[in-house]
Design goal:
Number of helices: 2
Strand content: 35-45%
Number of domains: 1
Helix content: 10-25%
Number of strands: 8
Structural class: mainly beta
Largest sheet: 4 strands, antiparallel
Mean pLDDT: 77
Radius of gyration: 18 Å
Low-confidence stretches: 1-18
Order of helices and strands: HEEEEHEEEE
Strand order of the largest sheet: 1-2-3-4
Length: 156
Amino acid sequence: MKKPIAIITLCALLSACGGNEVGDVSLGLFTTKDIKLDAFNDPIVTGVTCHVSSIEADLSFSDPSDSAIACRQTGPISAQMIAQIDKSDSGEVLFSKSKSIFFKSMKIRRIFDAKHQTLMYVSYSTKETSGSFKHSLSTVPLYGTEAYQAVVPAAN
């Protein structure tokens, strides 16, 4: 009786890729790999939208770790939004997506660079057993927003 539960769980993990998909590029007629393009809105700094591309292999237990991210200001960014975010050196994970049934996931993390008044968004892949070093970075400067210079950088 455990096999049906395992199959249902596997199907859920493989199909949980999400309702944020805005594009799908086939890598060829004789491959099961596609480039999926997802849009992601920062839940706190709502004036930022990130587009993430990653490879998905339909008939594989693990997707490749490659991903790319591009984030842009798509709406207002206020000082109140910036006041709410995690300002630690490691920032905070905003999004996580399973890339394998073997503990691999893709994550998006926001880190605030107070000195340069810039939001940094890094997309990276983790594998709990051995790690992965593939990542991509995008930045959104606060210059030109209400939040610019309202945030006082910490003294070094």
